Amino acid sequence: MPPETPPRIFAPDRRAAVRRRMLNLQQAPDAPRYLLDDMIEDVVERLAFLRHRPQRALLVGDIHGSLQAALEATGAQVTTVEPALGFQEEAPYPFSGFDLVASLGTLDTVNDLPGALIHCRQALEPGGLFIASFPAAGSLPVLRSVMLAADADRPAARIHPLVDVRAGAQLLQRTGFTDPVADARHLAVAFRSFGREIADLRAQGLTNVLADAGPPLGKAALERAIDAFSAASKDGRTVERFEILTLSGWRR
Predict the structure, then answer these.
(1) Positive/negative CA dihedral, 61, 63, 67, 73
(2) Which intervals of the chain form a coiled coil (predicted)?
(3) Confidence class of residue 213 from pLDDT cuts 50, 70 and 90?
């Protein structure tokens, strides 16, 4: 029986374009990077806790080179790749033999997540560690409610489906990782306006890459979105929630 074709939830070309725009926006000195910074800090802390000092590391999505610099400071040889620049996460990697593969904020928008995890594991040498962090289920509750208000009686697909902790743990087991761990944490971020939140999402590569994306918001819908966002504010700020899922496991 031929293998099942994964559903086409995300548009790869649209995904690459959104990440290329993110790379350009991140050149600004005041570009928001709090999600990526949190993921990198978490990876560094996990490596210290596990006393795992990699000699050869593969980093996916380390767009500023911050994690690369931290690992190289310990003597690691680091290879970095970026999906926006042609790296294919849903195909076998062209290299292997790493004792660390870390993916930062990319695996939430691949169509074949089990396949992508298998490729990560195969890139590891025996005894190598895999760590991935990305936005998870429960993220952007305010934006979800705002979009429903904006679309009124004709809701459209605008927010990505996301993986939760339980599904993440099951995926690690399914794809052959040893000692799999899935956990989530949240970040609360306050925004002064609807436009500011959208700008932050755009600058961090978190806008819509669905294959069947909804139509653009019209003027009236945009006004409803702004009003709904303002109605959720307190003291002039609306607090949004980001859930970050981290998956880790070893190759034995």
Answers:
(1) positive
(2) none
(3) confident
Number of domains in the chain: 1
pTM for the model? 0.95
Nearest to 85 by CA among 17, 135, 165, 146: 17
DSSP 93-141: -S---EEEEEEES-GGG-S-HHHHHHHHHHTEEEEEEEEEEEE-TT--H
Q: Mean per-residue pLDDT for 98-121?
A: 98
**Domain, as residue range, for 160:** 12-250
- Cβ-based neighbour number of residue 131 at 10 Å: 22
- The residue to which tokens 């590891």 are assigned: 124
In this predicted structure, the answer to whether residue 3 has a pLDDT above a threshold of 80 is no
Q: Are 212 and 145 in contact (CB under 8 A)?
A: no
Does residue 2 lie in a domain region? no
Classify the C-alpha dihedral 167-168-169-175 as positive or negative.
positive
Query: How many Å from the N-terminal Cα to the C-terminal Cα in the chain?
Result: 29
Is residue 5, in this structure, part of any structural domain at all?
Answer: no
Residue % of the chain over a pLDDT of 90 = 93
- Assigned token pair, 43: 């990876």
Two structure tokens written together for 193: 């306006």
Check whether 136 has a pLDDT greater than 80. yes
Q: Does a structural domain hold residue 112?
A: yes
What does each C-alpha distance from 14 to 8, 18, 65, 130, 187 come to in angstroms? 13, 6, 24, 27, 26
* Residue 155, both tokens: 């809701």
Question: Residue 148: which CATH number?
Answer: 3.40.50.150
Q: For residue 212, tell me if it sits in a domain.
A: yes
Rounded Cα gap, residues 166 and 160, in angstroms: 18
